[in-house]
Amino acid sequence: MGRILDISGQPFDFDDEMQTRSDELAMVMKRTQEHPSSGVTPNRAAQMLRDAERGDLTAQADLAFDMEEKDTHLFSELSKRRLAIQALEWRIAPARDASAQEKKDADMLNEYLHDAAWFEDALFDAGDAILKGYSMQEIEWGWLGKMRVPVVLHHRDPALFCANPDNLNELRLRDASYHGLELQPFGWFMHRAKSRTGYVGTNGLVRTLIWPFIFKNYSVRDFAEFLEIYGLPMRVGKYPTGSTNREKATLMQAVMDIGRRAGGIIPMGMTLDFQSAADGQSDPFMAMIGWAEKAISKAILGGTLTTEAGDKGARSLGEVHDEVRREIRNADVGQLARSINRDLIYPLLALNSDSTIDINRLPGIVFDTSEAGDITALSDAIPKLAAGMRIPVSWIQEKLHIPQPVGDEAVFTAQPVVPDNGPQKEAALSADDIPQEDDIDRMGVSPEDWQRSVDPLLKPVILSVLKDGPEAAMNKAASLYPQMDDAELIDMLTRAIFVADIWGRLDAAADH
User: Fold this and answer.
1) With 80 as the cut, is the pLDDT of residue 102 above it?
2) pLDDT higher than 60, residue 24
3) What's the pTM?
4) Residue 307 to residue 294: CA distance in whole angstroms
5) Which of 364, 365, 355, 346 is nearest to 9 (CA)?
6) Lowest mean pLDDT among 85-99, 161-175, 444-458
7) What is the pLDDT of residues 144-161, one digit of tens each?
8) Would the pLDDT of 431 be above 50?
9) Which residues in 421-434 are b (16+ Cβ under 10 Å) and which e?
């Protein structure tokens, strides 16, 4: 394939070979995972964060991996954010005022990505950037008919990458060079999730979560030691002066074993005393653990009441916190959409579109973050609002998440309500001596007649309400009466009186 333009407009030669399969990266790709969280101290953590600020992201990436693996609470909260993205519906939309070709391109991409088995996994793996700051997936290209498409996306260990020392916002592959290996165009799906402003090495939540993680680990370890000795008597061994080191070791072994096995032997002349049982409270340990978990929840989800029960007013506060979580989700998908448009949508379009591509008019992925409206509340409010304003049906369907029927698709229709007129009246009205029943029905007042008659009458009042407010409209009601068009109303009332008179005569005849 000839030279094409990347998203920045720079020409390059497209190569569909995966970059990590090159010989120069063979040793780097064989690295094993390190576990810097083992025995991590605040000083050691601070050093790893400083290294990341300078472009060495390896230790920080490994630390984030350990934190997610070891802390169940942190894992749970991160999973909520990652899975919230996958729960959303999405579509590929063309640019505004799209041409026929632009709509065709958007439809092509929409159909392909919805059928692509790898896309849902790619969305999930992109969520790894929430903690680590960035997520890297290598694209393996192949063919689907005449289309050049990604066959699968391979998630790569974030520790394989570094920041360019001359541009700390540029990610590169680690190799033997100082600057790292530049990423191959159209070869990577890179997603950066910014939890804070800064260079790529400082964007991840790991830099905020490391501190409650460390303090929680300290408390968990101390609490475990407390539980190990809680309730057990203090055991003190006494040896005579002049005992050898071997005799002392034997006594020490007996002291340690007797708590577990309730028996043991010691040399004659040595004694073993039992003091009062170890006591104390677990509250300080649990308070520190609780503080750390709340801090983790606040950093990831913006609050705690979507995770645990609260005190008085917890339900209303929980709803507020849930709204905050939705705002965080919307921000997440906004950042993710930009990454997808740059690294997946544009390459697919550049490699498969028949037309010239305008970078400023690209189709893009749109996540549906709207919430379905309350059907009961809207059903009650819309008829009232329709008396004074024009409401598009499309807006109502969008609010209620009700799709438009396609073609001859079957639609649900409301069944007409049959009034219960009672058996006696029903018998009278169905008698053979009333052949004019249908004619009388047609002369009656329908809801449409009523609406058509009242609208001209109320129009001056509605305009006054919209312009001056309800109170002013009430004060002007008398002066507005001459402006009311009552011709339709007079005709309708005349018909209603006539029909009422006929019905009265029929009822009287039926009674006799």
Assistant:
1) yes
2) yes
3) 0.70
4) 9
5) 346
6) 444-458
7) 999 999 999 999 999 999
8) no
9) eeeeeeebeeeeee
pLDDT at 435: 47
Cα–Cα distances in Å, from 85 out to 10, 306, 403, 442?
32, 17, 22, 56
Q: What is the DSSP string of 224-272?
A: HHHHHHTTPEEEEEE--TT--HHHHHHHHHHHHHHHHHS-----TT-EE
DSSP tag of 503: H
DSSP reduced 3-state for 50: helix
**Residue whose token pair is 């929680």:** 216
The packing angle between helices 42-53 and 206-229, to 10°, is: 160
365 neighbors 341 (Cβ within 8 angstroms): yes
**What secondary structure does DSSP assign to 176-229, as a single string?**
SSSS-BPPPTTSEEEEE--SSSS-GGG-STHHHHHHHHHHHHHHHHHHHHHHHH
Q: What is the mean pLDDT of the chain?
A: 82
Is 13 strand, coil or helix? strand
3-state secondary structure of 133: coil
Among 70, 72, 76, CA closest to 38: 70
Helix and strand counts by DSSP (H, E) for the chain: 20, 11
Cβ neighbours around 381 below 10 Å, total = 12
Task: Give the start-to-end residue ranges of the domains of the chain.
Answer: 16-29+42-208+318-367, 231-279, 371-413, 424-511
CA angle 230, 231, 237 (to 5 degrees): 95
Structure tokens at 503: 């019905």
Separation CA 407–CA 354 (nearest Å): 29
**φ/ψ of residue 120, rounded to 5:** -65, -40
